[in-house]
């Protein structure tokens, strides 16, 4: 887990199409707008654009809520064997998560104004979801969604 | 609770309050909307609040939490809350995330919503 987290925390911003720094509440809406735009550019269906934007909204809020600052990085992946995909990396150097399995269980939350549905929801909306976290170091969530064929 | 200006302009129809949400609901906005609606319910003694979300493109877990909380508060003030016009992609996303909009009556459109307000 440590190796993976370090690798993801050191990932270069230059490899991404968009980097949104999350420092204010308003940045959550900016991140979801950017995700929506990139998914549209990739030709995602309206349903999948909405799912990606909603997932990014959850990830950005988690950063703001638990780590205060961090960043959302988004890139279009055209070379994927399964067809075009959008990849989102949400990274922060916040307090970290001591039990990743627990935050992926529905209904678990440490925040009073929450359903505990954010991360499990993200996992359901996306095709791929990977979380690396260490208490005192930070958290990185990497998610992906492929464009559906019709 | 005082607010300087309404984040969403509302329309009084009989003893209902129509709330057409035509802006991006960010966290601050949805909290301000909650405060605004509670104040308007108290001030105008409306029997129902109708949230028209046709223009809303993203409803995530926090927005749905805050809207449900608003509906619960309205209920405690003797007021019904009806939500109408949820877009198909938004409905799909909410369903897939397993989010239930608790405390609301759900209507297809404004006409249906008005019907629900005045049903016993």
TrEMBL record, chain B:
Pfam families xref list: STAS (PF01740)
Entries under InterPro entries matching the protein: Bact_StressResp_Reg, STAS_dom, STAS_dom_sf
Record domain STAS: where: 17-117
Transmembrane intervals: none
PANTHER family to which the protein is assigned, alphabetical: RSBT ANTAGONIST PROTEIN RSBS, RSBT ANTAGONIST PROTEIN RSBS-RELATED
Protein name: STAS domain-containing protein
Annotated source species: Thermanaerosceptrum fracticalcis
Upper classification of the organism: Bacteria, Bacillati, Bacillota, Clostridia, Eubacteriales
